[in-house]
Design goal:
It is built from 12 helices and 12 strands. By secondary structure, the protein is an alpha/beta fold. The chain has a domain of about 160 residues: Heat Shock Protein 90 (2-Layer Sandwich). Strands 2-1-3-4-5 form a 5-stranded parallel beta sheet, with helices on both faces. It starts with a helix and ends in a 7-residue tail after the last strand.
Length: about 450
Amino acid sequence: MSEAAKKISTTTATGTATAGQTTSVSASLESFKSRTAVQTNWRVLIVEDEPSIAHGITNILTPAGNVIPMSTRSSRQAAPTAQVPVQPAVRDQFEVTWAKNPKEALELVKNSVLSGRPFALGFFDVLLGADIDGIELVKQVHQIDPKIYAVFVTAYHDRTVDSINQVLGPDKSDRWDYMNKPFTDGAILQKARNAVSTWNLREQKDKQDGQLAEAANLLLQGERANTVAAVGRSVAHEFGNLLMQIIGNADIALLNSDVTTMHNSLKTILRAGETASAVLEKFKKIQTGDNKRTEMKKINVADCLNEAVELMGHELRKRNIQITRIKKDVVEVEANYHSLVQVLINVLINACHVMPTSGQIDLSIIDIAKSPTGGADSGVRILVRDHGPGIPEKDLPKVMNPFFTTKGNRGTGLGLPICREIIEGEHNGVFKLENHPSKGVQVTIQLPLKQEGS
């Protein structure tokens, strides 16, 4: 074996090409988790043409002294003991801005949105003594800031709730409220608290929805990076197999001056290169998110098996392994030619590894419909049996698991999972491995004659 071949035979795939991607995704997730909740918005706009009323609402919302907390305790109850600390009341922190007319109000709302400090609530006098009333003003305000909550204040009953709803539109029915003068301090304060709480809860929900969507996207990126890493390891594994055959045949061509032998070796190298190209194309599809189905054509199963054996010719001769054709039914199926060759090479390599100095591999192609045990089924059954020592019973349930290997440092544990994915995932077939009753391991590959939807 050449030095290049030795290097390939001892190389295992690590998938480090995507380590940077995985680190980036992890950092993004940490950044997402560290974000704080939405800061409470206490900003209130008062639109009132009478200064006394505007000052009155302002004094209710922002009194000079502390707000006296409402207590659920009865005045007759005993005072709390010293062991139970009394929590201080949280004072309202309303930031009140007064607009004397609709023009000022629209300008203030516009500037608040542009500065990123919108109003949570607006108290709007219905009769403003201007070109437009408070209801029409709120309609225009909602075009600038659709999130602001409006409370209409009026001493008259000239506008019904239904008429206001018609002006503002049914889509804004949850963005406004109504109160008549005279009003109490408690009514104004409660309206303000409810409106501000509603605005902030909605804003919090919108932000959380956005963060959840972002988190889901980051998780998908993480899964994608892991998938690309796994496929990268798989591609390296498959390329290692194919390059072994290419280098082996190149050695033959270089060491043998016979023109026919060189020509045959080069033909084998070319076919191995075509299979390698097909493997690479699969990787590119996953990397770019291409979900197109693997191309299927009607192929002769014997052609795939013969090519796999020919590609493995150098390895078989080197290990003195005899190929025996047990059954050779002619069966055509819809499949991907290069994928089936790839599977058969993997299976033959595993068989070779358990018989390092000499041995035998039995190959069968069985037309299921013509088989005595086929029944009403149709399709093809390919059997590959080695005459090696077999697999320990304790390991049999685990051999299909990714990264499980019985070869120690010489194996990656990817060959059989790749084979099963190609046969069962891509071709709707069956891939089974078991110890043969007499000796060795037998791999059964079963494929339907036609693929679903074709």
